[in-house]
Specification:
About 0% of the residues lie in helices and about 20% in strands. It is mostly beta strands. The strands form 2 sheets. It has a 5-stranded mixed beta sheet with strand order 1-3-2-7-4, with no helix packed on it. Strands 5-6 form a two-stranded antiparallel ribbon.
Length: about 100
């Protein structure tokens, strides 16, 4: 099986070399745009060239990314990547009621 890897490299499952954390959206009652809690991201709506732009905050920590963590979109568009500029909360579905 051809893997298209660089010489000396091997293909391995991502979970063998990284910790993977799937997001989990808290209930919308914890969302705000008043800088209360941590920045909150779900999907790629606020993804930039390298870092996401903060527009929503959340006061309930469920799933958290730390500074420098890779944010990888698993919903359409799949594969978009940004880096967490600071500790933030990661969710999985569009925010409601904001």
């Amino acid at each position: 099986m051809k893997t298209n890897c660089l010489k000396g490299w091997k293909k391995v499952p991502l979970c063998d070399i990284a910790n993977i954390t799937m997001g989990q959206s808290p209930p919308s009652e914890y969302y705000n745009n008043e800088n209360l809690g941590l920045p909150f991201f779900q999907g790629v709506t606020n993804f930039g060239d390298r870092y996401p732009k903060v527009t929503i905050y959340c006061t309930k920590e469920q799933k958290v990314a730390n500074p420098g963590d890779i944010l990888f979109s698993v919903r359409a568009p799949v594969g978009r990547i940004n880096l967490a500029p600071e500790k933030l909360i990661i969710g999985t579905s569009p925010p409601e009621n904001l």
